[in-house]
Amino acid sequence: MSRNSRRYRREAEAAAAAANDPADFEKRSSEEQLTILEALIEEARTLTYEAINSHHRDFLSIRLHGQDPLDEVATVNDKYGLVQSTIDPSAHKSIERLDAVGRALRAIVRLAKIHANLKDIDDQILHGDVAVAASSIAEIGELLSELEDDSLLLVDAQAVDLLQMQYLKKRSALKAELDYLMAEMYQINDAGSSVVEMVVSYCVMSNYDDVPYENPVMLGDLFFALTNLDLYRDKMDVLADALIHRWFIPLLRNPNESLAVSKVKLFATINIGAYTASASNRGNGNEAGVTLSHCALVRDKWSTVLDFIRDEMFHDVSIDEDHTVVYEYLGSKLWTTLCPLLHESLLVPLVPADIDDIGDTQHMVPLLELEERWLELGLIAADQLSIKDSIRALLQTYVSKRRRDLLTTVASILATDDANTVVVGGDGP
Fold first, then answer.
1. Which helix or strand (DSSP H or E) is residue 198 part of?
2. What is the reported pTM?
């Protein structure tokens, strides 16, 4: 046996003894503690690589699942903290060794945590724990990004590449599961029917292969996972598009369209009679003028859809605490599209052309009430009250126009040389 081999064996034996006897470790000098730490880190590194290769290499047909490296790494980390708190700050060489040990240890800790998260994700998805799986995926992404360039010099690049590949696979698998859940929880049916229907399921009991989940997936679980993976925008865009074009716009054109909501224990449904343009209602619906009843009906029908969004599409979801960003994003997406349509279809036609039409401005009141409903439900913020601002601007424009017309008329009269003017007073003939 060579001298170096004997030395390494003695260090390994000392490290093992110190690991099993914390009191013995604390009695040793800083130099001895650092030597033991270096040996323990090498053991933890080897154990971590073995676990990574055993679990995650695709070509292995036999999984040799050994000891969880995270436990071993945690033990080493505790000892590192002890040395860090007791080492002499003036011992520069020892400080340099400790810094090197710390960098190596942090890299191994990240690898062990990534491995621990990755190996459980498949089971989490299978059991319906998509929120937990999403948290794991999010943490893995952060840990991989923290493996800085200097850390890559301290760990095996192949191990990092293997974990990165598995991370992408697990993320894709979870995304596919969330796509399936989204389609199951929000079903829109309009295949050639005269009725467009949305069915919102409050939970999903089984996966795509009809295998029951151990834990049924709730709407809140879906939103949590979408938020953690930063996928909610695309999903809410799809929902917003469906709501706009199949509910809000048809009801804006024809608020007399039938609208019904039904609820049972596990799901709720909203349906609308399909809008069909005809000679009598083709166009923007303003040829005969916008009436108070029309605006009031739009307010009432749209409010029904808004209540369905809040109470059913976000059923049992605490939007004020957990999923505010998703809810507000959907509300803002809807409002930024629909508000200009309200302005064009209902507000502009209500601007009085002359003093005789000034009474039509009372028809704007239901639109103000509708906007307030959006605000009450938290679908828009106080700085998004566009209807109120639009009405103020339109009326100010009307008043300014009337004022200009009046001033023009007065100026015209004053400038007229009227031959029939009679001078009163003065000397008689």
1. strand 195-201
2. 0.78
